[in-house]
Input
Amino acid sequence: MTDYTYLKRLFQAYYKKIKPNIPVVNSFEQREFGFIPWDKHIMIRHLSFKTSEYLLKDLIQTGHRHVYSSGSLYLQPDNSDMNKKQYIGCDLIIDIDVDHFYTPCKDNHDRWYCKECGESGNGMPSKCPKCKKTKFNTLNWICDDCLKTAKQEIIKLVYEFLIPDFGIRESDIKVAFSGHRGYHLKVENEKIRKLTSEARREIVDYVTGENISFEILGLREVGTNIYGLTKRNMDWSQKIVTKIEDILNSYSDIQLERLLLKFGLKRHIITSFLNSKDEFIDTISKNRNLWIIPNFGIATWKSFLYGIVHEIGAEIDEPVTIDIHRLIRYPGSLHGATGFKVQELGLNELNSFNPLNENNEKLDPIVFKSKNLQKIEILEPFVPSTKIAGDVFGPFKKGDKIEVPHHIAVFLLCKGVAKTL
Amino acid sequence: MEIHTELIYHYPWLPSLNSVLSSISSQDPLEFIKKTFETYPFLEIRERLLRLFRAAFENLEQIIEYQADKLNVHCYLILKILLYILDNRAITNRIANLYSKIAYNELINEGDAYIYDIFMDLNLDIKYYNIPIQYGINITKDQEEILQTNFRIYVFDYLKLTASLRDEYRRLVNNSLSDGYVFIQKRNLIRLLQEYVRQKLIIKQEEDKATLDNFKNEILKLEKFKEIYDIISSEWSLKEEEFEYTFEMDFKSGKELSGSYPPCVKSTLKKAQEGQNLTHTERLYIVWFLNSLNYPEDKIVNIFSTLPDFNREKTTYQVRYAKKKGYIPYSCQSLKSYNLCMAKKYKDELCLEGYFSRKYDAQREIKHPLSYVRIKQYRTSHKQKNSDKQIN
Output
């Protein structure tokens, strides 16, 4: 039996065990479904099911590696011609995945191999330090830290944008742990369903701060003076100035220096900023907008403000939100790259949720948890350590023959870095 | 909510037309036109409709004597029937642009209560405040300008109405938003209504030509109606010739490059030619693209003259500013992210398959629309040289 057949049977057994308790997305029969099987890397799309019982029956038979359903509703979800599907509308889907942004822990656990020159290393480089090419093979890992960052981004998105600004009701928001490196958020609201891709792009821009115009918000140069933003404006200005205040009041000079370097400011400009910091705090806290810092011209202010905007905005995977025909992982299904469950969460459960060490059994995405040991052999040159439920396994190297608990074995097999013995 | 009949006379595109004046709107089109011609003076109907079409053909932004009476409702419905059977996108867009501008000019003089009623009738969620609410301040030197408004609009209705308007100041990220409502000045709110009216008149062209022809044959049996239709058709055919000639001239002046444009440019220019609205991104792309090819400023500005919100002064400034800044057009990757890439739609071989590079001895992708033009030009000149050689 191949490892894929083994994993497929495990997945089949899981679906059999949970029957009939798989979450049912609303307007179930109008959703398109898609699957990726174990033996081929193809997406089988344009399927639909009358009820969740039929879906589960199919999953018990197939044990598919990945299971998806559409954010969109169609009158004919199973029609393979997109033009004949008869699109009704689409929920607002937001995906936060640590694949798309940097976290410091990646320097410890993410591995890259340059496709061009074979150089390798840890982290998330934009180009190969040796040959400067940009195509890599990667081995991305997960840890408590990056999943916590992803969770914080979802919390930021909900409590700093969706609820206070967009006025979305908590009851309309559905959140799920993706089963791997992030979270999905879905907003179900009749008016949102009718929005075009272009309108969705506007929502993306709003929650990320992309395409912001500081000039429209009030930044301008009059003679030698620069007039900045003020909290009294109920737009992004308020977020920006409040964030500046928070940073200036809580960061040490060293932390501030690091942040401003990250924003791309030069050292002498940063020194100037630090020297004028107190006066600047005084200016913005009194809602004055004549911003005076030596060496700060309009271009420097813009670089500074873009940096602040980036700190405020949510790190979302933009194309997912804009694309109205995208399929997303089905809640309650298993993620074929980890063996973890796509776990739906209430907003009140989000804060304490810890996917790699969850105390609430009902929310625990690690469904194959067991103390039974299983023998496997490592196939990759380097496999980072994995910490699940407080226990650390690894790091491992190619050829290591190890005995690990069943759920760790499933995780490493799904990741494709090990084989059964 | 019952809406004043006067408002429907004034703005016959309001949904309440169907309930308040159901005797008119629910009639069979043939019966409706017959009865209208029996009830109202034909010359008056003809005059009102032709005034509208002639102004649209001349690219005017207003008509004199907009009469908000019951006949106005009849004329609006006949106008829609005419647009349907004319089945001409350029005419429809021009009429939609003009009619929406008329609506704007009328609405801007309405009191707040009527504006509120109109939004309610359109099932668009707005909030009205008797006492204006402050949402910001403009401070320069010692001068403070309080930003306040009586209106807020539900964010998803705002997005729906601004979907095809992409001015920077309308972008959600540059606006004040809280609790699901965007703070908006009355003038801007009415501009959104203008766009609603424009969209409302842009009737989807009938795909089933047999249905259209049958209907057209039937309705043109009404002599008076046919008379109006014929006048419009013949006046348009003269205009169209002039219009297309100008268009050709615009794009073929200077270097002979128009045949080398990538499909994304051709498609956007076609939309402009038809008077369809262009998104902000499309406008920037065209300006930057044509500026990069050194097109004359006035010719670039003229391309935008058919757009619903055309303002020559503003457009000239923006074209000039972009030129000064030396902006280059978006790369193919960016165009794809903006959904502007038309390679697949037009099945363009060069876009889809790339070209063979002798330098790299390999097939290379087209990564930039200007590379597309360069390669097309190279191919054309090479082809020319080869054919010259053969002749010699």
Notes: Chain B has 20 helices and six strands. The first strand of chain B starts at residue 126 and ends at 140.
